[in-house]
Amino acid sequence: MANSGALPTSSPKVLVASDLDRTLIYSSAALALTMPDARAPRLLSVEVHESKPLSYMTETAAGLLAELGDVADFVPTTTRTRKQYQRIQLPGPAPKYAICANGGHLLVDGVTDPEWHASVTERLARECAPLDEVREHMEATADPVWVRKHRLAEDLFVYLVVERELLPEDWVKELAVWAENRGWTVSLQGRKIYAVPKPLTKSAAMREVARRTGATLTLAAGDSLLDADLLLAADRGWRPGHGELADAGWTAPGITALPERGVAAGERILREFLREVR
Q: Which keywords annotate this record (predicted)?
């Protein structure tokens, strides 16, 4: 005789890996507050740098993120260095895991995992041109007229801070072709031009966190070229209506292109995460 009592189904263990800048948090220049001033959302500062507020979420988004941290493993996933990431004070439970330096560092309770970092650096040494070659090429070809800063990030990748209105589009395209032939990729995000080794990916680090947590469902969001691999690796992904991916009209199966731009997109992404988890 068949057992009439159905076994309870366990809900999936969910990992949410989200990019931060221009996905969940926004500088004042990236907020895109297009509504009348009186209807603008209340903002919460989540990052202070040199005694000034630098990044924001809407207060509503902050509440949604706190809710999300209670029902899923939320993993901040950023190209920022560890030092830059640690300036951010996100609402909700402190994440056990965070992915920094585009996957070069996996933080566990705020401390880098040395074995993960060693495995990444070994792979970079095998598979792409050395960092110094790329850094020297960028320094030699970039024009001081439009470059404000040259930066080396965690001895893993390089980026320039530029004046966008003076930046020649052809220079970025030429750099991208040059880098492609050496196993590197180029991404233009706001006032920053990144050159990142192709094997240095957010997706590899996300898969490692999913393995450690036993996640059976992975969700992701991001706005830039450096987030594409993360979105493709997740079961479901979202991108805002701004950024490199939106500008390119990029999409793929399982990816939702949202119409919202600026800080409103961050709020919408968190609503989508929560809806999916529930």
A: Hydrolase
